[in-house]
Amino acid sequence: MRTRADPRLRPLLVRWFRAEQRALPWRTRREPYRVWISEAMLQQTRVATVIPYYERFLARFPDIATLAGAAEEDVLAHWSGLGYYRRARTLHLTARRIVEQHAGEFPRTRAELLELPGIGPYTAGALASLAFDAPEPLVDGNVERVFARLFALPGAAGSTELRKRVWDLAAELVPRAGGAGEWNEALMELGALVCLPREPRCAACPWAGACAARALGRARDFPAPKARKLGVEVELEALFVERGGRILLWRRPEQGRMARLWELPTRELGSQRLFPARLPTGFRAGAELGRLRHTITHHRIRLALRRGQIAVPPRGADWRWVPWGETSALALTGMARKALRALRPTAILRGTPRSPPSKTSECRA
Ligand code: SF4
Question: Who is most buried in 88, 106, 191, 228, counting CB within 10 A?
């Protein structure tokens, strides 16, 4: 079988997809808003992780008008734990733009979609094809890997050379007369279920007879691996300061990583500058309560959790005493969420009530 743009490729893949696709919540109704939210969440995040977040987010913000009218903190709280918080902020901003400038309707063309904040070539292709069935290609890591193997393409994963080649092929192969959304989804599904990064399941692949890398006996060699970014070790210390069933949290600054998200008072022991090296004066670190590991992009964090004390808490809107039962409603960093899960048994052992009646309060200036 000739590989390049072979007309038999399409029916083989589509037939496989119709039989094998996963039942995913964003596939039940192909509406632009639902496609958009799912695609934003799925970037850099596994499907199994996204599903409960997607369902909670859609339950709270069922349509674009609700999302546009929500407070940023509410949006971040429903994103909290997914990471890449800039995506949530951009999503919110874009929802407002669509409501204000497009009367709440998503633009339908790739060019118009690309003018919206946070919508790049992949998301524009996904929205145009999946929601409107426009004949637009898309390329993500799965599609890149599938095409790199199917056509035995040179170039490292994620390289400009390979990406351009794959985009050209995707544009050449996308159906022009209907079915573009299904085709694009089938390509991604093949990469997710069969053409796996380390162990491609060629025996189960509808394109096994057409695949150039398989014919060479080198399916795993394509695409060539990209140069790895070295991990950076980061040492942090977080303080668990508790009073009357409430814990002291602080909000990260406006700029920088995890901007405006809440966490335990934390300081950095090394010099990577992921966190401030000093806490406001007055904090005293006590007994160690535990240790945990957390990864943020290429930062590998080792976090020591310590009991903390402070005679006079810092003041202002960026410090709050929060009852245990209300922490999950805040836009927490992923690390803070993990730390609070680890600390909860400690607090319960000491007799801290689970849901104290007092309200969250700012540390008043
Ligand atoms: Fe991937 Fe194997 Fe299918 Fe080729 S035959 S596309 S390597 S799963």
Answer: 88
Instruction: Judge whether 144 counts as a catalytic residue.
Output: no
Name residues of the chain where pLDDT drops below 50. 1-3, 351-359, 364-365
Q: Give me the pLDDT at residue 356, please.
A: 37
Burial of 212 (0-12, 13-18, 19+ CB in 10 A): middle
pLDDT of residue 1: 39
Report the pLDDT value the prediction gives residue 357, as an integer from 0 to 100: 34
**Do both 176 and 293 map to the same domain?**
no
Atom nearest to 204 CA in ligand 1 = 8
Residue 220 alpha carbon to ligand 1 centre in Å: 9
Mutate to test the pocket of ligand 1, among 193, 194, 199, 216 (most ligand atoms within 8 A of CB): 194
Based on the fold, state whether residues 18 and 133 are members of the same structural domain.
yes
Q: Is residue 359 domain-resident?
A: yes
* Residues 30 and 62 occupy one common structural domain: yes
CATH number at residue 40: 1.10.340.30
Q: How many domains does the chain fold into?
A: 2
Binding site membership of 148 for ligand 1 (Cβ less than 6 Å): no
List the beta bridge partners of residue 294. Answer: 301
How far is residue 33 CA from its own chain's centroid? 17
Domain span including residue 284: 232-363
Verify that 22 and 100 share a domain, yes or no: yes
The reported pLDDT for the residue numbered 231 is 86
pLDDT at residue 347 in the model: 62
CA distances from 208 to 119, 167, 217, 292, 303 (A): 34, 22, 11, 44, 47
Q: State the DSSP H helix or E strand holding residue 294, giving kind and residue range, or none if neither.
A: strand 283-296
pTM over 0.85, yes/no: no
Ligand 1 pocket check for 207: Cβ under 6 Å: yes
User: Quick check: CB of 363 below 6 Å from ligand 1?
Assistant: no
Q: Which of 198, 221, 244 is the last residue of a domain?
A: 221
Looking at the structure, tell me whether residues 259 and 182 fall in a common domain. no
